[in-house]
Amino acid sequence: MDFWMIITKLILIIYIAFTNAYFQGQDLGWVIFVLLIYFCLNLLAYIFHSTTIRKVMLFFTALFIILCQHVLDPSLIILLPLCLFELMSYYIQKSWVLLLVSCLPELVLKESLRIPYGLSTSLSFVIFYLVFTHTKKLTLYTDRLDKMRQDMQRLTRKLNENEAYIKQSEYTLKLEERNRLSQEIHDSIGHSMTGALIQMEAAKHVMNTDKEKATDLLQNAINISKEGIESMRLTLKNMKPETDQMGLNRLRLLIDAFSSKHGIPAPFTHKGNLDKITPLQWKVIIENTGEALTNVLKYANATVVAIDIQVLNKFVRLEIKDNGQGMEKLKKGLGIVGMEERTAALHGTIIVDGSKGFSVTTLLPLAT
Questions:
Q1: Mean pLDDT, all residues of the chain
Q2: Which of 35, 97, 177, 226 is deepest in the core (most CB within 10 A)?
Q3: Which fold has domain 243-365?
Q4: Does the pTM of the predicted model rise above 0.85?
Q5: Start and end of every Signal transduction histidine kinase subgroup 3 dimerisation and phosphoacceptor domain (predicted)?
């Protein structure tokens, strides 16, 4: 706003100076001097960011214009409207009131000055109104942007705090799981081994005097050891996740990470008994899915990619299909070749189709 106000005032100053020079005014030197003082006062008003100082400078500038036009050159009065607009805008918000107040000097001006003053008032009002409205909108947008930036910073801070909390929670859960495992092993194995050791120590002492008693004690130690080993086996079996759960969770993590990082929806579906899929087959499925998603990101220019697993009677079928640009003539890159080699190692097959979008299908035979 300040820049356009200065430009407008410079235009008015040049107009007054040119008019005086053209009509060869007797006080041209003094007029130029007054115009320079007026310009310096306005620069001071714009330099200081304090609202109070600016109001004071604008007030004295208005008085200076009124005094100089009365004493020196009446044409200086055309500088007054813009100064009044700036000064009164701090107190009056309605534009029509500003225009009405700035037109009041018309009542006391000479007939020869009313038209120039009216034109100056009209021009100054239009420029001031446009600049003031634009500045107001710009300030509003800037405030909104600052608020959005603060919200983003707050959300980022909360996200970081949540991530730290999640990591701490995961670490705590691991510690709790380790503690639970340690306690269960201690309860199941420790007590059994201690009991078996006591039985064997007792058998050692009575072995020479009562062989039958020693045999019974050793048999008790064997039974206690077997029970302890079986208890530990059941504990470890209950803790170990199923193969299909491990593979499925790893695949879901891969797909979710791809979708959230790159903003491409990746719906995942599966059908059939996933227990039939072996750990090696899960490894190939996950690696082929990762390679296919990488190719989608590089070449497909797709907006969605679908992943589907079906466990059929004879084989497992994995399909990764996108809605991208496809490829009429297939050129196998290192990614596709690597997928074929991994799949062939398990006696499987890769089928690639680029006619409608791009799809990669992995077929792995099930163990009979």
A1: 79
A2: 35
A3: Heat Shock Protein 90 (3.30.565)
A4: no
A5: 177-243
